[in-house]
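On clarity, I found the account of how folds are encoded harder to follow than it need be. For illustration, here is how one protein appears when written out as sequence plus structure tokens:

:::
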Amino acid sequence: MLYGALAVWALPWALPSLAVDDGTLYGWHCFLYAMAFRFLMDEPLGRTLIESASPWTNFLVPIAVLTLERRRESWLRRRLAPLLFVSWALNLVWIWPMRVDPHVRLLPGYYLWMVSFLLLALAVPALLRREDPSALSAPDGSAPPSKALRAGAIIALLVLGALAGFGLLAGPPRHP
């Protein structure tokens, strides 16, 4: 289930997510744009803050996968579902500008990205209930995580970090 959650979250990065009059933006491009440009927009402060927080929610998905796979009780583990729901709700901020600007529209990548937060949030309680109690009985309270899953989540975090750094340093990207 965690492999699926990570895949559903990663796929939209390579899919068309936003259409503008002069081209299409893919998920990774939208992330860079949001990271670099939101505080520079001439919008109300509340909206600017929410839009600026949105790209940072992407870090929660691989962190959630690592936390769930680790199988060690923690503050974050107990609060993953609410944090993912809040992230999902926060990311709804992008729907409003698309409703008022006829030159911009959301594409399947955005909707799949949104679904990934919701699916993982809904799956967390089931995953926590389904865990084998003996898996939590190791001396340090953890079970060995899947190497492939851990590697995938770590790679996702590294790529996100690199993209975030690039987005913050380079400024808003030009779109096609």
Q: What stands out?
A: The two ends are 36 Å apart (CA to CA).
